[in-house]
Amino acid sequence: MLEPEITAEAFIQQRQQPNPPVLLDVREPWEFQTASLPDSLLMPMGEVTSRAHQELDPDAHIVVLCHHGARSLSVTMWLRNQGFDNAQSLAGGIDHWSRTIDPAVPLY
Asked: What is the mean pLDDT of residues 61-81?
């Protein structure tokens, strides 16, 4: 089984592969509008339990994103308990991404 968290650097490498992970953004809509990563699926944390089984493939590699990494880790563990064994949390969230990977992504 994959580690519960993935680093931003490892995620960048995986996004460049033929079958990139699904990027699941669990922040609120206003956060998503403020700063987001391309090709991400917005599913606020409060909607995950009602939407995950309808909209996500349990066999897919899913990288969960939030602001600092706490919500995404919580959602990752819930997904894993539901059979989404390839779910991982993006360590440090979009804040870490903005600070270390892409400063064009706004901080908030």
From this structure: 98
